[in-house]
């Protein structure tokens, strides 16, 4: 076993340890505690905090280099249409460069696990030898044609039918039951915008009109929310529901009954000026909420510390330690890796980062969050994946 020592160890699942060590054996964490409790060779990482690598519950690595290219002009449907145009202009080499830039951003920000929404099967190859754990979820859309063939489904960590406005109830049923049977991640965008609410609840609005042009039947609209629509498909059970910005109390109750988890993307939420995120109502109903970055196309940097800062600015009563857990332990649980990633506990994967202590704060979690320097030391699966110390 080899030990790594730093000023603080922050296991997330338990309290911070001053002058702590983490013992690593092969690719697992074999010990966590005060340095005085252990003998053995150790690497001193100095005045830093050792904590589990961040776990990003929702990202689109392929769109990283779209940052700044798609300004939001006030209409979500227009933004989607702009993105479709830009995607058609991009070459394969553009997507490859973009995914590479995304992975580099994850390393710089201390993210060791990411749920990446792969827009096509070719994306899977681009992240095959990534320096961090990429859990690829193949995105499926059948609003204007066939979705990616089933032969690719087994190659993925999970599936991600895009959203209730672009995916048929038949495809939702099929993908949900596939993921349930194989223990794969099932994730989908839902209730993201007020335009999606207008479409499903009132058969009106820009998104409703855009989808009509694309040939989507309006027959299922005007009956209730998109969350209720998903529930009726049986596709809400255990689902990682991304965004969930526009929720009625009935929607919140459905998510709770279904055992769903919500992935909130604070910067993306801010970029589109969505209605306030219903965090307190979700928390009161017992719906777990974890954090993701969404893509850089919607104004994010793929840096979860930055996402936590945006989240805490909107919800100042949330404790820094709780917010930090949403970007580590809670996200790992949502991605079917409870106790494996997102905590420093004996037996979990050795995915560890060292973050400089920032500010004069006495709260270790807060000291991690307020820091803006790049993360200079990262271990993934027991191997040092990045070291600029
Ligand atoms: Zn997304």
| Shape verdict | globular
The radius of gyration computed from the alpha-carbon positions, rounded to a whole number of angstroms, is: 21 Å
The level of helicity is 25-40%
Report the mean per-residue pLDDT as an integer: 95
CATH topology heading of the largest domain = TIM Barrel
* Terminal residue distance: 22 Å
- CATH architecture classification of the largest domain: Alpha-Beta Barrel
Q: What's the number of helices?
A: 14
Q: So, the CATH homologous superfamily of the largest domain?
A: Metal-dependent hydrolases
**Largest sheet features:** 8 strands, mixed
What's the number of domains?
2
Output the helix-strand order.
Answer: EEEEEEHHEHEEHEHHHEHEHHEHHHEHEE
Total number of strands? 16
Bound molecules: zinc ion
Model regions low in confidence, pLDDT < 50 over at least 5 residues: none
Secondary structure category: alpha/beta
The share of residues in extended strands comes to 15-25%
CATH class (first level) name of the largest domain: Alpha Beta
């Amino acid at each position: 076993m080899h030990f790594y020592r730093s000023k603080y160890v922050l296991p997330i699942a338990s309290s911070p340890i001053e002058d702590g060590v983490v013992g690593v054996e092969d690719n697992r964490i074999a010990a966590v505690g005060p340095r005085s409790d252990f003998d053995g060779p150790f690497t001193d990482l100095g005045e830093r905090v050792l904590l589990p690598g961040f776990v990003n519950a929702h990202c689109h690595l392929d769109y990283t280099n779209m940052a700044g290219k798609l300004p939001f002009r006030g209409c979500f449907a227009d933004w989607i249409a702009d993105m479709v145009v830009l995607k058609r202009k991009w070459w394969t080499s553009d997507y490859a460069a973009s995914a590479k830039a995304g992975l580099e951003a994850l390393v710089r920000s201390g993210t060791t696990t990411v749920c990446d929404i792969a827009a096509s099967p070719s994306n899977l190859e681009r992240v095959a030898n990534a320096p961090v754990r990429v859990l690829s979820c193949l995105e499926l859309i059948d609003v204007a044609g066939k979705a990616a063939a089933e032969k690719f489904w087994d190659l993925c960590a999970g599936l991600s039918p895009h959203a209730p406005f672009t995916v048929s109830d038949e495809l939702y049923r099929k993908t949900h039951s596939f993921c349930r049977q194989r223990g794969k991640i099932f994730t989908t965008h839902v209730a993201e915008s007020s335009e999606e609410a207008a479409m499903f609840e009132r058969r009106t609005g820009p998104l409703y009109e855009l989808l009509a042009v694309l040939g989507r039947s309006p027959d299922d609209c005007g009956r209730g929310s998109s969350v209720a629509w998903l529930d009726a498909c049986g596709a809400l059970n255990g689902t990682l529901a991304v965004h969930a910005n526009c929720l009625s109390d009935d929607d919140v109750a459905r998510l709770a009954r279904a055992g769903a988890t919500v992935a909130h993307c604070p910067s993306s939420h801010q970029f589109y000026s969505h209605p306030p995120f219903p965090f307190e109502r979700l928390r009161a109903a017992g719906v777990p909420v974890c954090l993701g970055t969404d893509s850089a196309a919607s104004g994010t940097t793929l840096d979860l510390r930055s996402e936590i800062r945006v989240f805490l600015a909107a919800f100042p009563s949330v404790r820094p330690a709780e917010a930090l857990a949403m970007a580590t332990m809670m996200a790992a649980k949502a991605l079917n890796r409870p106790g494996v990633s997102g905590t420093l506990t004996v037996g979990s994967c050795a995915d560890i980062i060292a973050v400089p202590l920032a500010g004069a704060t006495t709260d270790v979690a807060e000291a991690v969050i307020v820091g803006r320097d790049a993360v200079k030391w990262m271990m993934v699966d027991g191997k040092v994946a990045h070291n600029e110390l």
